Amino acid sequence: MNNFPVIATVLSMVLGLSVTRLLLGLVTIFRIRRTSSIDWVPLVWALVLFITQLEYWWSINQLPSIKPTYSFPEFAFLVLLTLMLFLSTALLLPSRGEDEQEGLRSYFEKDGRFGLLAFAAFLTLGFVVNIFFLNSPIASGWAYSDVVMIVVPIATFVIRSRRVYAALTMLYLPFAMFDTAISLAS
C-alpha cells in the first residue's frame, strides 16, 4: 500500500503552518514599523527560511519516486524534520508587537536567533535524510556544502558581535541561493 498521501498531507499541513507563521511575523514587523526599528539581518534569514520552505515542499513530491512506502519511524523522522523548519520560522520573527518593543535587532539578538539553531537542526536532519533515505555518498560536494550550511547558522547564533554575525548572514544568502538553484536543477 502506498502511504505517500498520508505523509504528504501531514508534512504539507506543518509546512503550511510554517509559511503562515513566517508571513505573520513579517506582517507584525510591518505593523510596528513606526514605533520599532527594523533590522535587515532577521529579514535576510526570513528570506532564506521562506525559500527553504518552498524548496522542501517541492521536494516532498519526489518522495514516492524515492521510496513508495514508509515505515512509521521513517514517517516520524520526516515529521520531526518538518517540525524543525516550523520551529525555526516560529522563533525567528516576533508574533506580537509587544515582542518587539525595543526593535527587531533587539528581538533577534535576545530570542529570534534561537530560530537559527532550529534551522541548523533541520539542515542536520536533512543531511541524515540524504545519507540514509537517498543513499547519497557522504564524501561528495553536496555533503561539504551542507556542512557549511549547517555551521554558518550555528556560528551566527553563537557569535555576539553584530559585525561578524551580519557578515555571516550576508555570506550565507548567496550560498543558500546557489544551493537552492543546484538542488532544483537536479
UniProtKB/TrEMBL annotation:
**Keyword terms, alphabetized:** Membrane, Transmembrane, Transmembrane helix
TM segment ranges: 6-28, 40-58, 70-93, 114-135, 141-159, 164-185
Question: Does the UniProt entry include the keyword Transmembrane helix?
Answer: yes
User: Where on the tree of life does the source sit, at the highest rank?
Assistant: Bacteria
Record-given protein name: Lycopene cyclase domain-containing protein
Q: What is the lineage of its organism?
A: Bacteria, Pseudomonadati, Pseudomonadota, Alphaproteobacteria, Hyphomicrobiales
